[in-house]
Amino acid sequence: MNKKILLAALAGCIFSATMFGQPNQTQELVNTIKTKLAYSKQALKKYSWIETQTVFYKGEKKSSTIYQCYYSVDGQLQKVESAGGTPAKTERGIRGRIIENKVDDITAYVTKAQALIKTYLPPDPAKLQQIVAAGTSTVAILVPNQQYKLTFPNYNLPGDQLSISINKSSQMLTGLDVSTYIDKASDVVTFNLTYAALPDGTQYAAETDLVATAENVKIVIVNSGYTLGKQ
Fold first, then answer.
1. Distances (CA, A) of 176 to 104, 121, 149, 166, 179
2. Which of 19, 118, 134, 139 is spaced 20 to 30 A from 230 at the CA atom?
3. Do you find a cis peptide bond into 125, omega within 30 degrees of 0?
């Protein structure tokens, strides 16, 4: 057989193997993600922890709120505001009223942003599987045979995108990125989440940074101090 023909045939076999192997690899990674999400969602119900939420406007810190978090007996997440936070600053006079109105606007926007985050976190394993089944998900190799990033377009809204990074070796989630919007597509909101793990393998959102560029708003949510049982 001509050497060039042989090389072309071998290249075709390698290409075919890659193409046919990719869906299996994608499903394997998705299965790992789904298993880890399901396990952690259930395991977190045994814990209580502290959530610190800080709001920035035009790069300036506006407020910080601390919550004691735990799950009630019926499985509902409870967040109780505790002392130690820093409320927004107030001023007197006309300037004070202008600032107060702006603070009210920011507060309303932050409330919308908080509600938006809840629609993505934690990710719904069933939704992830639906997107994979539709053939629209993609896989990026960050570190060969170790680190992967799976992207799920139109996860919650038309044109949005949710991505999950995973370490295949440790079978641990490492991060999550979302690009979405509030009210209209031009009101772009992005948030990035860093995962951490407890000694029993339970994973949680260690830090979530949400940025709404059009509104000059940034929200940083940090979860820490995990202990077994209600504090």
1. 30, 9, 9, 9, 10
2. 118
3. no
| Spatial CA neighbour of 103 closest among 54, 52, 57 | 57
Give 35-65 pLDDT, tens digit per residue.
Answer: 999 999 999 999 999 999 999 999 999 889 9
- The verdict on residue 9 lying in a domain is no
Task: With respect to residue 15, please indicate whether it lies within any of the assigned structural domains.
Answer: no
Q: Is residue 69 part of a domain?
A: yes
State the Cα–Cα distance between residues 80 and 72, nearest whole angstrom.
12
In the block, residue with structure tokens 């919308």: 112
What tokens does 81 get?
């505001």
**Cβ-contact 160, 180 below 8 angstroms:** yes
In the beta sheet, which residues pair with residue 141? Answer: 148
Question: Is the per-residue pLDDT at 83 higher than 60?
Answer: yes
Report the chain's mean pLDDT, rounded to a whole number. Answer: 84
The token pair that represents 182 in the structure block: 């509030």
Residue 57 and residue 193: Cα distance in Å, rounded?
20
The residues near 36 (Cβ < 8 Å, ≥ 6 apart) are 171, 172, 173, 203
Q: Which domain holds residue 148?
A: 23-226
Q: How many separate domains does the chain show?
A: 1
**CATH number of the domain encompassing residue 180:** 2.50.20
Give domain status of residue 160, yes or no. Answer: yes
> How is the beta sheet containing 147-153 ordered, strand by strand?
77-86, 60-71, 47-57, 217-228, 203-212, 188-197, 172-181, 161-167, 147-153, 138-143
Q: What is the dihedral of CA 72, 77, 78, 84, to 10 degrees?
A: 130
What is the pTM (predicted TM-score) of this model? 0.80
Q: Kindly tell me if the per-residue pLDDT of 134 is higher than 70.
A: yes
